């Protein structure tokens, strides 16, 4: 993985709570955050006494490298958002400037925690579809803004292998959003639900209390077989 191919963009604990319908009981579970990138979710939840490990290939890089990359891509990302404002729902964020400030705050919180978190093995370099964790090591695995969203870069089989691995290491898997970058429902969703249902796995769609990308109001929930 090359750093120049990475677009780091971090979300907050509050956003994770809304994206994944996390309640107080959930926040006390052993959690795996998949593709968390520079989100402040891990740092904030750890400060509250949570038990969480985040995985992302970006964690192979130093704090300074990630910080420099954030500063490089920030104006590019914001320009794209401004050019496509109609693709987003501006209720939680009042404006692109408000969004940018929130994202920078989250990423700065992450950066302040990064070295400590790496030393505590809360930030682990890794990526789907192979995770270096034991079977059912986690109570809950959360995958934010990776699977489905980038379906043009990953095949249906890639998705099935990745979700199978998440189900292997966790008792419950939640994935959000279920739309592609174009804002349409992923072409893979129906096939993936069918695949896991045929295995006897409990699969369902659940409405969430978060919508920034228009139409992204649902998460996929998979309960591992006992």
Automatic annotation (TrEMBL):
Residues 119-171 form the Methyltransferase type domain. One of its GO terms (molecular function) is methyltransferase activity. InterPro entries: Methyltransf_11 (IPR013216), SAM-dependent_MTases_sf (IPR029063). Keywords: Methyltransferase, Transferase. One of its GO terms (biological process) is methylation. This is SAM-dependent methyltransferase. It comes from Vibrio zhanjiangensis.
């Amino acid at each position: 993985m090359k750093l120049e191919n990475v677009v780091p963009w971090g979300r907050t604990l509050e956003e994770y709570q809304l994206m994944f319908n996390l309640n107080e009981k959930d926040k006390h579970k052993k959690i795996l955050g998949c593709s968390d990138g520079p989100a402040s979710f891990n740092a904030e939840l750890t400060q509250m006494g949570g038990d969480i490990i985040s995985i992302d290939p970006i964690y192979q890089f130093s704090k300074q490298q990630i910080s420099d990359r954030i500063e490089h891509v920030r104006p590019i990302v914001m320009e794209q958002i401004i050019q496509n404002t109609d693709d987003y729902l501006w209720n939680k964020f009042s404006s692109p400037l408000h969004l940018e400030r929130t994202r920078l705050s989250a990423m700065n919180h992450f950066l302040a925690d990064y070295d400590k978190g790496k030393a505590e093995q809360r930030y682990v370099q890794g990526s789907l579809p192979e995770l270096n964790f034991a079977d059912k090591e986690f109570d809950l695995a959360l995958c934010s803004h990776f699977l489905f969203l980038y379906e043009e870069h990953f095949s249906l089989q890639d998705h099935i292998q990745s979700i199978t691995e998440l189900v292997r290491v966790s008792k419950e898997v939640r994935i959000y959003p279920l739309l592609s970058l174009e804002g349409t429902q992923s072409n893979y969703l129906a096939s993936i639900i069918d695949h896991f249902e045929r295995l006897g796995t409990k699969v369902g769609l659940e409405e969430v209390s978060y919508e920034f990308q228009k139409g992204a109001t649902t998460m996929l929930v998979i309960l591992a077989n006992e």
